[in-house]
């Protein structure tokens, strides 16, 4: 019983002759399975349906393919399971018997079953590849999320370090102001700290009025000096902060305090306003001491947008 050639088998399975010839030639006419694999791999190629032109001197199945002016181009194919065992069919062999209809249908059925198996294997391979791609995509997404989280953490750390630096600079500025106030007190004490001899008299003797004398004058009476100011600050959202500042601190110290401790949005530019009497402070006012601005011993300030 002679079997169908690879080309005939592919055409019986529904492949057109052009694709079947390309598959047989591209696989070196090594059998139906290799040709089917080639067709399934290349079925979406843009040039799959272009006319097939066999190469000059192409040898298929051990015999040269020749073309006479009256013959159609064809591709020889080795028979499968021939008695010779060399995979070739002698077209002049008188013992070659055509397949019966039942034999032909049985061979086509076997080939179709083989094709279904190949297609199932291909679908399974594609599912495995798709699953692997999905795993890789998720892995890449997780790595990207880790990178974003690290960048966010680094930004938060930089912001925290910047705020800590600003607080430290503010603390040092306040300490410098305190030291200056202490030096001013010492200088005033040394300047006005002369005690009158009359103040050393014992309390057992009645105090005697003494006429004023140019050499016995003490320091002139002065109004009470406040070295601190309690300031209440109303923020943009209506909440309030209360803090105590030195009277000689600049108004900029209050603005820095609001930037560090308030809930002002990052990057929001603002200034301070005194409601009674209404006075919006300028950048020049920020360098002036609280005492000079009349904000001692207490005051209310309002944060407003610029």
UniProtKB/TrEMBL annotation:
Gene3D superfamilies: DNA helicase RuvA subunit, C-terminal domain, Phosphatidylinositol 3-kinase Catalytic Subunit, Chain A, domain 1. The keyword Coiled coil applies. Residues 1-42 form the UBA domain. Residues 224-303 form the UBX domain. It is found in: Cytoplasm. PROSITE patterns: UBA (PS50030), UBX (PS50033). Pfam families: UBA_7, UBX. Residues 55-65, 196-207 have a biased composition (Low complexity). Its main location: cytoplasm. It comes from the Eukaryota. Keywords: Coiled coil, Cytoplasm. Residues 45-103, 115-230 are annotated as: Disordered. The keyword Coiled coil applies. InterPro entries: UBA, UBA-like_sf, UBA_UBXN1, Ubiquitin-like_domsf, UBX_dom. Residues 93-103, 115-190 have a biased composition (Basic and acidic residues). GO terms for biological process: negative regulation of proteasomal ubiquitin-dependent protein catabolic process; negative regulation of protein K48-linked deubiquitination; negative regulation of protein ubiquitination. This is UBX domain-containing protein 1 isoform X1.
């Amino acid at each position: 019983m002679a079997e169908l050639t690879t080309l005939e088998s592919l055409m019986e399975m529904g492949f057109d002759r052009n694709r079947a010839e390309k598959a047989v030639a591209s696989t070196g006419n090594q059998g139906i399975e290799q040709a089917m694999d080639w067709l399934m791999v290349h079925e979406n190629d843009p040039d799959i349906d272009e006319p097939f032109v066999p190469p000059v001197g192409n040898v298929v199945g051990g015999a040269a393919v020749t073309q006479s002016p009256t013959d159609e181009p064809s591709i020889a194919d080795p028979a499968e399971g021939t008695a010779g065992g060399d995979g070739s069919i002698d077209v002049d062999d008188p013992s070659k018997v055509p397949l019966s209809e039942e034999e032909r249908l049985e061979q086509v059925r076997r080939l179709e079953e083989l094709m279904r198996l190949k297609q199932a294997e291909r679908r399974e391979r594609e599912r495995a590849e798709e699953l692997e791609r999905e795993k890789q995509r998720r892995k890449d997404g997780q790595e990207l999320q880790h990178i974003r989280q690290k960048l966010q953490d680094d930004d938060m750390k930089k912001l925290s370090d910047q705020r800590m630096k600003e607080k430290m600079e503010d603390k040092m500025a306040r300490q410098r102001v305190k030291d200056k106030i202490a030096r001013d007190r010492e200088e005033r004490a040394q300047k006005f700290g002369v005690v009158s001899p009359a103040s050393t008299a014992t309390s057992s003797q009645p105090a005697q009025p003494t006429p004023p004398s140019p050499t016995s004058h003490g320091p002139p009476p002065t109004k009470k000096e406040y070295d601190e100011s309690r300031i209440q600050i109303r923020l943009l959202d209506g909440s309030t902060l209360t803090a105590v500042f030195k009277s000689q601190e600049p108004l900029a110290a209050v603005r820095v305090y609001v930037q560090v401790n308030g809930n002002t949005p990052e990057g929001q530019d603002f200034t301070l306003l005194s409601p009674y009497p209404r006075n919006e402070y300028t950048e020049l006012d920020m360098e002036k001491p609280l005492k000079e601005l009349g904000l001692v011993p207490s005051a209310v300030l309002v944060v407003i947008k610029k």
